[in-house]
Amino acid sequence: MPLQPMKYGAALSCAALAYYPALASASEDDGSDAAAENGGQITVVATRNATLSFEYPGQVTVIDRDIIDDFNASTLQDVFAAIPGTTFDSGPRRTGDVPSIRGLSGNAILIFQDGARQSFVSGHDGRFFIDPELVQTVEVVRGPSSALYGSGALGGVIATRTITAEDMLGEGERFAVRLTSGYQSVNDEFRVGGTVAGQSSDGVWDALGHITYRDSGDIELGNGALLPADDAITSSLLKLTARPTSSLEITASYSRFEGDSTDPQNPQGNNLAGPDNDLVFRDARNDTAQLGLNWNPTSDALDLNIVGYYSRNAVEEDEVDDPRITDREVETFGILIDNRSRFTLGEASSLTLTYGGEYYRDEQRGLDTATSDMTRGGVPDAETDFVGLFIQAEFELDTPFGLPGYLSVIPGIRWDSFESSATDESFGIDDEEFSPKIGASYKPIPELLIFGNYALGFRAPSFNEAFADGTHFVIPNLSAPPGPRGPVFVSNLFIGNPDLQAEESETWEIGAGLDFDDLIQRGDRLWVKGSYYNSDVDNLIGLDVNTPAGCFVASPFVPPCGSGAEFGNTSQNVNITAAEIDGIEIEFGYESEIFYARGHFSTIDGLDIDTGEFLEGLIQPDILFVDLGARLGETGLRIGTRLTYATEFDEVNEPQDVRDDYFVSEFYLVYEPENGPLRDFRVDLGIDNVGDADFEVVNAGVFQPGRNLKAALTWSKGF
After folding, report:
1. Are the CB atoms for 99 and 111 separated by under 8 Å?
2. Can you list the domains of the chain with their CATH numbers?
3. For residue 428, how far is the Cα from the chain centroid?
4. How confident is the model over 211-236, as a mean pLDDT?
5. What is the CA radius of gyration of the chain?
6. Which residues of 377-411 are buried (b: 16+ CB within 10 A; e: fewer)?
7. Which of the residues 96, 277, 402, 429 has the least number of beta carbons within 10 Å of its own beta carbon?
8. Residue 578 pLDDT
9. How confident is the model over 468-509, as pLDDT tens digits?
């Protein structure tokens, strides 16, 4: 069902809820099953506990497998159209995907895959290295989440959970198979994949294996142009679960993403290969492994999770017309331990304490075969160690202070310490931060929710920012006479900054929601939840580029031209500004036996406090998204349409950056019979950008894909 993840109702065991195995805290007696069956989305990441997302005192969206299937997604980026306040700053190509939440991106967004931090951040190589076919659920928490997750959660958290055997197996089944294939016309993409799952007769262990292959080519844009691209992607997953006792569960998983493409060195936007943007063979790899344990005996004091993980992201670029090879590799090792202790406070009130600690280490290595020492400019060999401790209390109060209804108050705080160093730098950076947060939601009547929250967030300077080294760019010295081989060139060099400070934010948010059951007919549900938020972000990190004037004109009155710090020809990351970001987010949905709808409206505005200029890289136009559908009786047919409207984007500092408003429509049809000879099959047909609209989302002049015909066939069988 595309509106609410109804399938959660039977899947709220620890393993099924484990976006992080270390966060698997739902038990059959905590009321979560009943909540899910009554139409509520369940969030795990927002509080590290299974909680109704509607009642969370903030904004969080859960996208489940049903909705991912309806999108017939080519990349995980596709399904983010259903999430307010979340955009991608990359462009039509698959490579270079960079998510943004409430205007913040890069190191200000935490990404998790099965509990493993994905710390790879690059200027143009993207951050997502997972195929949508592997993903069972995506959870996006919007707003500062440092009180639980530490550095990097300044803008929010994106957590994906990959499929498990439990997701595949029905009641009484020991084995299951799922085969898929699909095609889309806009880039001539073909995909094929398969999943196999099984469990022992006593349910003590289960296992799952999955593989998907995609191949695609040039992208047809809405303006009629053909954007060169060539991708071949293989994604695989192996997952094992053991339950030696009724209270102990052990999970292990390994996933691998292999993406081979031929595209410009900077593939973002509508960029083409050329003299300043070489065509490269790009080899992107992601390996993620985790081992988790959940011990949940019949005790209110213990619900213990331990997870260790390893992730490796690497992007190698081999220039097509040159022997030069560059590489960037980031490895992350981490361990997280947390526990939940539950207390009863009177007849109808309770307290859940969630507390624990985390250690993780990021290591980066860079390579450039064109340099004498094989180091890569802007990619220092460096490492950062993080240690964090956190505690959160969830007070659930019935008839609080004699008032009618139900009150939830969630205060929390986390302490983090970090140390960074680089191989070729004489200095290191270290700091520590406290990140408090408090949220409250009040339901005076079951249909009405009022909520608010206040949070401080931070993100530590990355090693690329603190220890940037090597050559940034090369320019001709126009003030010097040319030599026998042409102009004399000089280099602008990156230099490190030992005084770089962490970015910090202060955010408050207020909102309300309405939730009605049996509104028009028996069994239906209508809900809406909206909020206004305001964030003050200090010490934003930006690149300060200096080039001596003597490089452009010969004069005794200007600094002479040369390379590096001696001549002031440098680039350095510095704390340059403070920003104010605010916006509105509204989500809504309706579900009945015949009709369903879900959608959202969002605004993001931002100003540089010092200059009063618009923060064009952070803000977006106002966006309205609606997904409407209907089920055609007992036929197994379902038809739907997705509509997106964006207002004109005119909050710009230069007139040429204005983007027109746009309206884009999509159509999809799903045939999934429950009975008859085709009951194990699912057919998806769709058209994206039905009107072949020519529109801009990322920046002015960056056009999106045109009309796209899509089809997929899936066969699933349990034994």
Report:
1. yes
2. 6-718 (2.40.170.20)
3. 29
4. 96
5. 26
6. bbbbbbbbbbbbebbbbbbbbeebeeeebbbbbbb
7. 402
8. 87
9. 888 888 888 888 888 777 788 899 999 999 999 999 999 999
